[in-house]
Design goal:
globular, mainly alpha, Growth Hormone, Chain: A, 22 helices, two-stranded antiparallel ribbon
Length: about 450
């Protein structure tokens, strides 16, 4: 733990006088900054929408463009790659200017990426869609690098993790809306012709195949275009809004070398970055491939399978509120470890239990994942002082775990079944060994937070 003064996630002095909480302030959300809190919280829903309208597109592009599981999962590589590439530049920009400036840049890139879907669809080029996703998430990287530590700083230190968990509770609400949009406005409107028939058409009547593909891509473009307009509206609102400045924002000098040196010697922080990478990988794999699991193992249609994805998100939302409440009574590290063990057990069920029981286990994993992102984030950043601005970037870069692991899982799905001697596993079920490993790493971090790093939390 560094001994920087005035931790970013910390003291009442971190806010200007006008935003100081009232006497007796142990409030999670001081009333003086309620409007700013509400406004910034909308960003959590906005990036949740982007995440979960995108997950089903992996299966959609596979069928539309007749590509492999590995190739279609490059959607997630491009989407989460933006987080990884832009996190450090975003942190340096925020340090040089302000959290509000970071939010404005983020919204601009987010809107620009959405609008790039229009020429991508006209070109019918998968690589162009990947660029659009990458630009979108460069914007999301700015938003998350700004909003998460800003939320921690909006009040007393002793309620910082609860405040971030509460704000993060609105992220899955945006996710649910994104899932519904994907199901009702995209998947349900795609041409129902299956992959085998499309391949025949591609060989025998290519003009009909091109027309069908163009129709489907136009269906995908529409919701992203509307999303771009919504984000542009949010950009205007934030541009005119007055957000409280946090203590330290007026210090614009960038001491990159010393800051990185301090962070590199902070074990709690470094382990948090690793745990976050594995968490994001587990989350994206479990949610992205629910559709493929239901299709390949149970023969479900994509729209039916997406319903299970939505059920998983409802469970995630409900569990987030419950776990935020439980943090009043249990240590963050201990609760994190317990949930990771539960996630391990449910993923094991997904792998080894056939039929609907395996699918139910996969859906149930969301209850265990709900607490993880904001809790790992809060644990890793607590006590970093102004170093938390760059530290936050490391944790956002960790979202790159979601860029690397889905293609690996897709590659496993493209393989033949695995004969273990006592049991034969389909490649779909076997591929979930990757999130299984992820939960082991998270459980270790929760344990070490409770036992090894407890003096720094």
């Amino acid at each position: 733990m560094t001994d920087q003064s005035d931790a970013l996630s910390g003291t009442n002095a971190a806010l200007p006088a006008a935003a100081q909480p009232a006497r007796g302030a142990g409030a999670v959300i001081p009333r003086e900054i309620l409007w700013s809190f509400v406004l910034v919280t909308t960003l959590f829903a906005l990036w949740g929408f982007a995440n979960d309208i995108t997950n089903p597109m992996v299966a959609a592009f596979k069928n539309i463009l007749l590509i492999s599981n590995f190739e279609s999962s490059l959607v997630q590589f491009a989407f989460y790659g933006g987080y990884c590439v832009m996190a450090i530049p975003a942190a340096l920009f925020i340090k040089r200017f302000s959290y509000k400036s970071g939010i404005l840049v983020g919204l601009s890139l987010y809107a620009g990426g959405c609008l790039l879907f229009i020429p991508s669809g006209w070109m019918m080029a998968f690589w162009a869609f990947l660029i659009a996703y990458f630009v979108m998430t460069c914007g999301l990287s700015f938003l998350e690098t700004s909003a998460n530590p800003y939320m921690l700083a909006m009040g007393p230190e002793d309620t910082a993790t609860r405040r971030l968990n509460f704000a993060q509770s609105f992220n899955p609400m945006g996710s649910l809306l994104g899932m519904w949009t994907a199901k009702s406005l995209i998947l349900a409107r795609l041409d129902p012709t299956d992959e085998a028939t499309r391949r025949v058409l591609q060989e025998t009547t290519p003009e009909k195949f091109v027309a069908m593909s163009q129709h489907d891509l136009d269906v995908i473009i529409g919701p992203y275009f509307v999303l771009g307009l919504v984000v542009l509206t949010a950009l205007i609102v934030f541009a005119v809004a007055r957000l409280p400045r946090i203590k330290g924002e007026d210090e614009t000098r960038i001491d990159l070398g010393p800051t990185l040196k301090r962070l590199s010697t902070n074990r709690k922080y470094l382990e948090g970055v690793v745990a976050q990478a594995f968490y994001v990988g587990a989350q994206i794999m479990c949610w992205t491939f629910i559709i493929q699991y239901a299709e390949n193992e149970l023969g479900m249609a994509k729209t039916t399978a997406q319903m299970y994805n939505m059920v998983a998100m409802v469970i995630f939302v409900s569990s987030r509120f419950i776990c935020t409440f439980l943090l009043k009574y249990f240590s963050p590290g201990g609760l994190l470890m317990s949930l990771a063990i539960g996630g391990f057990g449910l993923v094991a069920g997904t792998i080894f239990l056939k039929g609907m029981i395996g699918l139910y286990c996969l859906v149930g994993v969301s209850a265990c994942m709900s607490l993880m992102f904001p809790t790992i984030y809060g644990i890793a950043l607590k006590g970093l002082g102004d170093d938390a601005k760059l530290g936050a970037a490391g944790l956002i870069m960790a979202i790159g775990g979601g860029c690397l692991m889905p293609p690996l899982q897709g590659a496993i799905m493209d393989m033949n079944a695995f004969n273990l001697g006592f049991l034969t596993l389909s490649s779909t079920r076997a591929s979930f060994v990757l999130p299984l490993i992820c939960f082991v790493v998270i459980a270790i971090y929760g344990f070490r937070t409770s036992r090894v790093h407890r003096h720094t939390y």
